[in-house]
Backbone:
């Protein structure tokens, strides 16, 4: 049995609204094995982002537990959680937010600095390796304004990857890309699980991308509607 890197038990999340309590998540259980490419799918408003942000500890559940590598997030201090996010997790968002005054290489290197790594020849090699993995070995000195949306998103993936996180969280990373580039980006995520043993959790609406997943978690109206893979 593979090592379970993410486990959630009975995750519920209520938001206070003028109309009363709104339960965005109604008790989500999941076990995600290490090194898998996992797609979190469901209609708009089904609870994907809410669930993802509870797993990565940016938000707290109203009820339920999240275990990362067997550790209950409730047992960690805010400082320990921040450290977990900085060193063990990588993030890719729908809108790319590269630093415009830095080139591709420097954007990736900067993220390693933020993860607390000392910048040296080894980190430079790692930056190159990550940019090559996303197919941008020949764009390292380009500024973000000189790159297409798909290229920028691939720099963002290299950036999320450079400090060797255990888990990458990608919330709708392909939403602003054309279908060919969306498929390419999805393929890169899958390659990362194979080459680096990283676990990737990606949300998407795009049914065309589902085939690439090792495992699918489908939400509907705050509930999980598939229990299998
Ligand atoms: N801070 C909040 N306060 C009140 N309701 C919220 C809050 N955040 C999310 N919700 C509600 O919870 C539900 C789930 O939202 P969530 O953002 O998780 O959906 P999603 O599946 O990511 O949707 P999308 O595909 O559009 O990104 C929605 O009905 C949303 O309106
Ligand atoms: Mg969302």
Residues:
């Amino acid at each position: 049995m593979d090592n379970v890197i993410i486990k959630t038990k009975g995750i519920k999340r209520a938001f206070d609204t003028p109309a009363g309590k709104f339960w965005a998540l109604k008790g989500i259980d999941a076990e995600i094995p290490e090194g898998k490419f996992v797609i979190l799918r469901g209609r708009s408003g089904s609870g994907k982002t809410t669930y993802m942000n509870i797993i990565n500890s940016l938000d707290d559940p109203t009820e339920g537990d999240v275990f990362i590598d067997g550790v209950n997030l409730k047992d960690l201090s805010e400082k320990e959680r921040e450290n977990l996010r900085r060193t063990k997790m990588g993030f890719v968002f729908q809108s790319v937010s590269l630093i415009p005054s830095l080139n591709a290489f420097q954007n990736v290197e900067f993220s390693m600095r933020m993860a607390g790594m000392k910048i040296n020849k080894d980190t430079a090699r790692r930056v190159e390796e990550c940019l090559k993995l996303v197919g941008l070995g020949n764009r390292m000195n380009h500024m973000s304004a000189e790159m297409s949306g798909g290229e920028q998103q691939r720099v963002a993936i290299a950036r999320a990857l450079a400090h060797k996180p255990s888990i990458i969280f990608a919330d709708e990373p392909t939403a602003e890309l054309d279908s060919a580039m969306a498929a390419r980006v999805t393929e890169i995520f899958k390659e990362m699980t194979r080459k680096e043993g990283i676990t990737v959790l990606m949300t998407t609406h795009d049914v065309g991308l589902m085939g690439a997943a090792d495992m699918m978690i489908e939400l509907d109206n705050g509930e999980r509607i598939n229990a299998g893979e």
Summary: The first strand starts at residue 4 and ends at 17. The pocket of adenosine-5'-triphosphate (ligand 1) is lined by residues 15, 17, 22, 24, 42, 44-50 (CB under 6 Å). The helical segments are 48-55, 78-88, 104-114, 121-133, 149-161, 179-196.
